[in-house]
Design brief:
Layout (H helix, E strand, L loop, with lengths): L2 H5 L10 E7 L1 H14 L14 E4 L10 H19 L5 H4 L5 H7 E6 L11 H10 L1
Helix pairs in contact: 3-5
């Protein structure tokens, strides 16, 4: 299956997607702290878990050939690295490493979620919020 056809299989309404979570390793958090001090941005909290990148990807079961999913993920890593650095006004040159899958692996880790719920999945989202507010 070509890449565009694979991407076209993503359908949020029918829950036909998986999630790719991108989390920084300690080396990345340390680098961002140093970089932000050099830029005079140390007063800003630049990394916090809620700000970590989540990418909606095709459902894992759409990858039928052995190794196809792994290859898909490996191909994304250089671009994910660039996107993460851009969040901080940085480039791979600022990081001191090229935008490669190896560099990504040095500074980030990935995890996969095969499914997610949407608020619209609940019959009454207001009731859900009310119940959670009561503790």
């Amino acid at each position: 299956m070509d890449m565009q056809s694979l991407v076209n299989t993503i359908n949020l309404e029918r829950h036909e997607f998986s999630l790719l979570l991108v989390d920084p390793k300690p080396q990345m958090v340390e680098w961002v702290s140093t970089f932000s001090r050099q830029k005079g941005w140390e007063i800003y909290k630049l990394y916090y878990p809620e700000g970590n990148l989540v990418v909606v990807i095709p459902k894992i079961d759409r990858f039928s050939a052995p190794g196809e999913f792994e290859h898909f993920i490996e191909r994304m890593k250089p671009r994910l690295l660039e996107l993460e650095l851009r969040r901080f006004g940085a480039t791979p040159a600022d990081l001191g490493h090229p935008a490669t899958k190896e560099t990504f692996d040095r500074f980030f880790e990935l995890s996969i979620r095969e499914s997610a719920m949407l608020m619209s999945d609940f019959k009454n989202p207001e009731e859900l919020l009310r119940a959670s507010a009561q503790g």
